[in-house]
From TrEMBL:
Chain ranges of the HTH lysR-type domain: 1-58
Protein name: LysR family transcriptional regulator
GO molecular function: DNA-binding transcription factor activity; transcription cis-regulatory region binding
UniProt-listed Gene3D superfamilies: Winged helix-like DNA-binding domain superfamily/Winged helix DNA-binding domain
Family to which the UniProt record says this protein belongs: Belongs to the LysR transcriptional regulatory family.
Pfam families recorded: HTH_1 (PF00126), LysR_substrate (PF03466)
Keywords, sorted A to Z: DNA-binding, Transcription, Transcription regulation
Length: 292
């Protein structure tokens, strides 16, 4: 098995389109398709379903997605640590970011806000893990969704923060041929709704749970990965509350539809927290520029 196959898998799971994923990986589409097929052969299962609207993860693919990002991150971490020990690794500004924003918001935002920042190291994980990364001092910045109506994640005097964007979390489900949602919340006639739920370690999961919006639904599947929940929602498995940063493209191309009225939406901030104490020169300059 080659590391590049895992990275290709993650790119296709995000883009849901072979052409866009191949472009993102800077490889021709035929070569990209061969590498995806080689990875499926190595796994021993089909990971994607090909259709007229693009590709969707199979159940096996969703399972692989739940672990692939961590595997890739750990391999790169070990390499960086080994290079640091040998004195070959230059200092990089370290960002920690929740999974959904690392796929969607972070790449474009950091290019716009910090074109001259230099080397960047991105750690992507669930919210609970990201909090621990920050408290250990293993990252200089944390980018995450934040509900201003909930208690603060960190002590403001130790971990200052700034709002860098906004998002909205909405219930979605697969769209039928007429564009209407296959599942709707609340369900008509007292029926129960299948809920595709975030795990409690997830930041979005905490936000949704705190509002008690989905308390009358039956939890059918739980994951800390929004991309996994979106794949299952697209497959018609139930309703998921997803940030628009993640679901917007699927809503536009008709794979998903809003599964409830606008009152079920939750407005959230995209907030950047900085670590306690003095950061490195590049990180401090970046922080000062954001606050201007």
């Amino acid at each position: 098995m080659e590391l590049v196959w895992l990275e290709d898998f993650l790119a296709l799971a995000e883009a849901r389109n072979f052409s866009r994923a191949a472009d993102a990986r800077n490889v021709t589409q035929p070569a990209f398709s061969r590498r995806i097929k080689a990875f499926e052969n190595w796994i021993g299962a089909e990971l994607f379903e090909r259709g007229p609207r693009g590709v969707e993860l199979t159940r096996a693919g969703a399972h692989v997605l739940a672990h692939a990002g961590e595997i890739v991150r750990r391999i790169h971490d070990v390499r960086r640590e080994a290079r640091a020990i040998s004195g070959r690794e230059a200092h990089a500004v370290r960002f920690c970011c929740t999974h959904a924003l690392s796929f969607t918001f972070f790449p474009g935002w950091v290019r716009r806000c910090a074109p001259g920042l230099g080397a960047i190291r991105l750690i992507s994980d669930n919210m609970a893990a990201c909090e621990q990364v920050m408290r250990r001092g293993d990252a200089e910045f944390l980018l995450c969704h934040h509900d201003p109506e909930l208690p603060e994640l960190f002590e403001a005097n130790r971990f200052p923060s700034v709002v860098v964007g906004y998002d909205r979390v909405m219930p979605v489900s697969a769209a039928g041929p007429d564009g209407a949602p296959r599942w709707r919340f609340p369900a008509p006639d007292g029926a129960r709704v299948r809920l595709l739920s975030y795990a409690e370690q997830s930041g979005i999961g905490r936000i949704v749970a705190a509002r008690w919006i989905a308390r009358d639904a039956d939890v059918a599947f739980t994951s800390h990965l929004g991309a996994t929940l979106m794949s299952l929602a697209c497959a018609g498995e139930g309703v998921a509350w997803l940030p628009l940063a993640l679901s917007e493209e699927a809503l536009k191309d008709g794979r998903l539809a809003f599964a409830g009225d606008d009152s079920l939406g939750i407005d959230v901030e995209i907030r950047l927290f900085r670590g306690a104490g003095r950061l490195g020169p590049a990180a401090e300059a970046f922080w000062d520029a954001l606050r201007e």
